[in-house]
Amino acid sequence: MTILVLMGPPGSGKGTQAQVLAGRLGMPAISTGDIFRANVADRTDLGNRAQDFVDAGEYVPDQLTNQMVRERLAAKDTRHGFVLDGYPRTLDQVEVLDELLANQDRKLDAVVVLDVDPDHLVQRLLHRAELEHRSDDTEDVIRRRLQVYNEQTHPLIKVYDERGLIIPVDGTGEIDEVTARILHLADSLENRGS
Ligand code: AMP
């Protein structure tokens, strides 16, 4: 059983890599951003409460986010492990995840941090904006999302590093190259302790 977190600034490719990685490892990728977007599109109560935050590039309040993750992680498909994409993003979320995993007698195996040159991030996101038309891929909102990441999420790297969980991965290059780098490390994870 493997539990991974993929972390990195907006545009670092964590969503893509989380999906590929989860597919190879045969477990679900859980993307809080995708869950919020689906709820916004379906106009659910959660979606209506999250929409203004998502559109502005601000984080959805912890209470709402944590409750959603609590419910998602209770699903049966997570029992052999999962890859978290975009969660945790705040210190409060780190604590809630710790508590959730401890209650299930599970623990985090690694936090993969995708590293990409900040100048490339905005270019990548603007390119994606042309393809996907996400409501938060306008230039102003992109800059706000990068700022929010630096202020609220980047500090988590230190917290997880103190626990020896951080695995930095170069996120530049083709999707396949980055996947190969992560899989190489996933292999060593699977062999760890065996
Ligand atoms: P993402 O697709 O991961 O870039 O997430 C898109 C947006 O969803 C973010 O800019 C936030 O508004 C919201 N979001 C996703 N994950 C979280 C989280 N862990 N905490 C708070 N807000 C989140």
TrEMBL record:
Residue stretches spanning the membrane: none
Signal peptide residue numbers: none
EC number: 2.7.4.3
Main location: cytoplasm
Domain notes: Consists of three domains, a large central CORE domain and two small peripheral domains, NMPbind and LID, which undergo movements during catalysis. The LID domain closes over the site of phosphoryl transfer upon ATP binding. Assembling and dissambling the active center during each catalytic cycle provides an effective means to prevent ATP hydrolysis.
PANTHER family, A to Z: NUCLEOTIDE KINASE
Source superkingdom: Bacteria
Catalytic activity: AMP + ATP = 2 ADP
Biological function: Catalyzes the reversible transfer of the terminal phosphate group between ATP and AMP. Plays an important role in cellular energy homeostasis and in adenine nucleotide metabolism.
Ligand binding (ATP): G11, S12, G13, K14, G15, T16, R128, G173
GO molecular function, one term: kinase activity
Pfam families per the UniProt record, alphabetical: ADK
Residues at which AMP binds: T32, R37, E58, Y59, V60, G86, Y87, P88, R89, Q93, R134, R145
Stated name of the protein: Adenylate kinase
Region ranges (NMP): 31-60
Family: Belongs to the adenylate kinase family.
Subunit structure and binding partners: Monomer.
Pathway: Purine metabolism; AMP biosynthesis via salvage pathway; AMP from ADP: step 1/1
Enzyme class: transferase
Keywords of the record: ATP-binding, Cytoplasm, Kinase, Nucleotide biosynthesis, Nucleotide-binding, Transferase
Keyword set includes Transferase: yes
